[in-house]
Design goal:
By secondary structure, the protein is of the alpha+beta class. The protein has 9 helices and 24 strands. It comes from Thermoactinomyces daqus.
């Protein structure tokens, strides 16, 4: 074949690809997959890192395997998906797709919270935290959501993993097939009946103490619900300090899992704030009449591990100095397994780099709710003593 003819054929082929409508490019994806071209790929998730717990404590996966993700050739009526690039990662503006998929998005930029409502489901997130609260059950996200100019941005993988939309990534762009009917119906949120202190202690009896040999603090100020001038006026969790718990608490004190569960957050790459950064956040919180924004509260908790347990229990292990090797979001964890070590990260002492004020702070939520407000101080102590001082 003459060189001129070959050049002309190549020009025609390239022109056909460039000007071809997206809906007719299915063969191109298959060609790319056959020949190992990586720029054309279906969006996928590592479903081994996205497990959850049933009420019985059984671990299950909510995500489809790779071979269930559609190839480009299987998509019909696909269109460009509006995305925002941040640090070489594609994000989706939830507000731009909400109407197409039939759900509502509420963004509270001041509090740093994002809420999605679809039929009977409520999904919530906090900016900067790579965790999704789905009807009171928590699971890890690939990356944390962002609030930018009042808009909620989530990683592109949210489209497939959570909303189950068929998405194909081509280089730095994405296309999708709009399908509101494919949004899953999640397990409904359980509304637990009002329980007496004895009943609540029995309900939580499968948990064990996170610090071996320690007992619940004898100081009421260390208990959930103790008065504070921040955090909405109350202390959210239970503190283990050296004084009041019967053991010495230091940065070498191991912290163990309360039961079998799934790690939904592990701040393995945590970097401590500077004093100036913390003071700036505290100044913002001080302008909120004690209603500290959720994203600032999270910063003040320092290095954390969150674990979703059975029966709707989610535990936040807070102010850790270190996280145990191998602990990562999405992995299953056994009762009594090492999570990390007590510390003071996120506190005024932590940002100064000293060893003062070292303790473990433990938050317990039931189906995403703080449940201690219905009990007196004595009843809270009764519940905690029966759970942890066995």
């Amino acid at each position: 074949m003459k060189k001129t003819s070959l050049v002309l054929m190549m020009f025609c082929l390239i022109s056909a690809i460039v000007f071809m409508p997206p809906s007719n490019r299915g063969w191109l994806s298959e060609f790319a997959l056959i020949w190992g071209i990586n720029d054309v790929k279906p969006l996928s998730y590592d479903h081994q890192n996205s497990q959850n717990l049933s009420d019985s404590g059984e671990i299950f996966s909510q995500n489809r395997s790779f071979d269930q993700i559609p190839l480009f050739s299987e998509l019909s009526n696909q269109e460009e998906l509006p995305t925002v690039a941040r640090d070489d990662t594609l994000f989706v503006n939830l507000g731009e797709i909400a109407d197409r998929l039939g759900f509502q998005v509420k963004v509270d930029a001041r509090d740093g919270t994002i809420t999605i409502r679809h039929q009977s489901d409520t999904l919530s997130m906090v900016q900067g935290i790579p965790v999704l609260n789905c009807n009171g059950i928590f699971e890890p996200m690939e990356q944390a959501p962002v609030i930018q100019n009042g808009n909620a941005l989530v990683p592109l993988s949210f489209m497939d993993r959570v909303l189950q939309q068929q998405v194909v990534v081509i280089g730095k762009t994405a296309e999708w097939q709009v399908n509101p009917a494919s949004i899953p119906v999640f397990a409904p949120k359980r509304n637990l009946p009002k329980m007496s202190a004895r009943e609540m202690a029995r309900y939580l009896s499968f948990l064990r103490s996170p610090i071996r040999g320690a007992h619940v603090s004898t100081h009421d100020s260390h208990l959930p619900g103790a008065p504070r001038t921040y955090r909405h006026g109350v202390h959210e969790g239970l503190d283990w300090y050296t004084y009041g718990t019967g053991v010495t608490i230091s940065k070498r004190t191991p912290v163990y899992s309360l039961a079998d569960g799934v790690v939904v957050r592990a701040d393995v790459d945590y970097q401590e704030m500077t004093p100036a950064e913390r003071n700036r956040l505290m100044a913002v919180a001080g302008q909120s009449d004690g209603q500290t924004p959720a994203y600032i509260l999270d910063k003040m908790r320092g290095r954390q591990v969150w674990v979703q347990y059975g029966k709707g229990v989610m535990a936040r292990f807070v102010h850790l100095s270190r996280i145990a090797p191998g602990i990562k979001a999405g992995q299953t964890i056994k009762a009594g397994q090492l999570i990390g070590y007590a510390g003071n990260s996120g506190t005024s002492d932590g940002v100064k780099g000293n060893d003062q004020g070292v303790h473990l702070h433990l938050d317990l939520l039931l189906y995403g709710e703080w449940f201690w407000d219905g009990y007196t101080v004595q009843e809270r102590r009764e519940i905690l003593d029966k759970i942890f001082d066995k």
